């Protein structure tokens, strides 16, 4: 552009030398005007280019907007430094009493009390007062917004067993397998619990308030992560107590565990705990049903944007520097026969490009549908650029749905019988039939422990989406159904024992990872 301008100016100068006589005065004047025009045009172009570079330059975004904050200068990090005092929300069964006593001795958790309003706040702040309201909700809005808060969460099974063992030890000299299971079941169905003890077994989610900043740290890594959080708020670590303790408890009966899962389902979901007794399996060995969890949420954090432009901060477990990070854009991993087409179409109608509409979401050189390939086959840079979610489904029901997929060619009169139905499934699972379009791919093949992946369940899809999407600033109303097979003649009850055996063998990881069962599968 600059070179062309210089060429034009040179041509004008050359022409002006031939126009020295007075009769060419008009030509000379037009030449001067043209030179001015060229100079002004070049200046405008350069100014626009400079502004465009500045607009495109990455700059920090407020965490409350739910966007990624990418920066490296100390001045830009200053915006993330805390400006409020840090206070503790006491949850029984998480050793919060030790932290509470330590903080009170140092004057960290106490707060100024002046006048009648503060006196009422002081009464509300007692987290052990019996009330039908959740403890944190009893605080006035002024107090809740005056501070940043943190709470300690613990595996729900460990927490409720610890609390019940403490209550039971006051009544019995020795706690056995039978009496702790009976006592637990009595507490969970409401027949054993005294009114004064109600607060001690409340779900931990009752303490969550997304309108304020709440750091949530895990009991399992408390000795490592609590100092990190306190240092971020410039609090002294002197005489900080060791709070985590390993406990063993009598074996819990399946009926007892099921009651715990039902009462504390939101705790399992939102705090990313496995629905398994921690003494029997790793805390991250399986994903709970109806979960909105991430396979790596324990090593990162999620900042939830709220209507009040504040942020509820879920404190991470192994962060190298700051106690939180802000969200990335959300994208979708499409697993066949899990409602993916409906999700993609809904997203497209709301201006979101997910799945087959997401151009980057392709696996080069792979046969079949390019958007049903296993997630780990995507380039690492793409996997880590976004947060992701996928939908999983009971493998048995998913296999039946695959049979009715309009792209498999099974909807013909010749194949409309139980024999053809079972042979189709068997040939798809025993390796004798090409698995085109990603059909029959194990759902566990889409997991990637190095990326943020939210796991939703087909059986509770609308509810799960309604929980997840608002965390990314996406409003959700309802999900239309697509590709629904009409007049299905066969279902899971028409699968032969040998077919079910193949399903269990091929999808053993799916049954385990996503907590599904195959009730009719032969031993």
Describe this entry's structure for a reader.
One of its GO terms (molecular function) is sulfotransferase activity. Keywords: Glycoprotein, Golgi apparatus, Membrane, Transferase, Transmembrane, Transmembrane helix. It is found in: Golgi apparatus membrane. It is a single-pass type II membrane protein. Its main location: Golgi. By secondary structure, the chain is of the alpha/beta class. The protein folds into three domains: 44 residues; 230 residues, no CATH class; 184 residues, Rossmann fold. Helix content is 37%, strand content 8%. The strands form three sheets. The chain has a four-stranded mixed sheet with strand order 4-9-8-7. The protein has a three-stranded parallel sheet with strand order 1-2-3. α7 crosses α8 and α8 runs parallel beside α10. The longest helix is centred in the first third of the chain and has 32 residues. The chain is flat and about 115 Å long. The N and C termini lie far apart (77 Å). About 19% of the residues have low confidence.
Oligomer: single chain
Q: Return the domain count.
A: 3
In terms of DSSP E residues, the strand content is 5-15%
Number of separate helices:
18
Please provide the count of β strands: 9
Shape: flat
Helix coverage percent: 25-40%
């Amino acid at each position: 552009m600059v070179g062309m301008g210089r060429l034009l100016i040179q041509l004008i100068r050359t022409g002006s030398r031939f126009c020295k006589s007075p009769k060419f005065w008009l030509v000379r004047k037009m030449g001067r005007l043209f030179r001015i025009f060229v100079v002004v045009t070049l200046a405008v172009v350069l100014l626009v280019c400079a502004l465009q570079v500045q607009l495109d330059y990455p700059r920090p975004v407020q965490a409350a907007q739910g966007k990624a904050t990418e920066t490296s200068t100390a001045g830009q990090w200053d915006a993330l430094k805390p400006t409020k005092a840090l206070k503790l929300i006491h949850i029984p069964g998480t050793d919060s009493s030790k932290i509470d006593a330590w903080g009170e001795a140092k004057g960290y958790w106490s707060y100024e009390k002046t006048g009648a309003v503060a006196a009422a706040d002081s009464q509300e702040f007692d987290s052990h007062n019996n009330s039908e309201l959740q403890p944190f909700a009893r605080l006035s809005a002024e107090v809740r917004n005056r501070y940043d808060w943190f709470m300690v969460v613990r595996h729900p099974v460990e927490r409720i067993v610890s609390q019940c063992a403490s209550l039971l030890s006051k009544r019995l000299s020795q706690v056995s397998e039978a009496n702790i299971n009976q006592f637990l079941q009595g507490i969970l169905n409401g027949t054993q619990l005294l009114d004064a003890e109600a607060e001690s077994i409340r779900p931990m989610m009752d303490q969550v308030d997304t309108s304020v900043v709440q750091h949530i740290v895990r009991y399992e890594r408390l000795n490592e992560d609590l100092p990190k959080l306190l240092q971020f708020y410039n609090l002294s670590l002197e005489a900080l107590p060791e709070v985590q303790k390993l406990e063993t408890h009598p074996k819990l009966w399946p009926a007892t565990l099921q009651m715990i899962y039902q009462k504390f389902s939101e705790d399992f979901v939102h705090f990313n705990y496995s629905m398994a007794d921690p003494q029997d399996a790793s805390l991250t060995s399986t994903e709970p049903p109806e979960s909105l969890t991430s396979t790596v949420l324990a090593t990162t954090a999620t900042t939830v944007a709220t209507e009040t432009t504040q942020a509820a901060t879920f404190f991470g477990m192994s962060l190298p520097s700051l106690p939180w990070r802000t969200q990335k854009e959300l994208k979708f991993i499409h697993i066949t026969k899990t409602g993916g087409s409906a999700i993609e179409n809904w997203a497209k109608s709301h201006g979101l490009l997910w799945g087959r509409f997401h151009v980057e979401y392709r696996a080069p050189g792979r046969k079949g549908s390019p958007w049903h390939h296993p997630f780990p086959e995507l380039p690492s840079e793409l996997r880590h650029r976004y947060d992701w979610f996928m939908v999983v489904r009971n493998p048995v029901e998913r296999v039946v749905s695959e049979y009715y997929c309009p792209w498999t060619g099974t909807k013909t009169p010749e194949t409309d019988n139980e024999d053809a139905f079972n042979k189709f499934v068997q040939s798809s699972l025993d390796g004798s039939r090409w698995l085109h379009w990603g059909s029959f791919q194990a759902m566990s093949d889409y997991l990637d422990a190095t990326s943020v992946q939210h796991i939703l369940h087909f059986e509770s899809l609308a509810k799960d989406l309604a929980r997840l999407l608002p965390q990314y600033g996406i409003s959700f109303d309802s999900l239309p159904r697509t590709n629904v097979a009409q007049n299905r003649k066969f279902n899971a009850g028409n699968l032969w024992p040998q077919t079910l055996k193949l399903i269990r063998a091929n999808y053993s990881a799916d049954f385990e990872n996503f907590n599904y069962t195959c009730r009719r599968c032969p031993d």
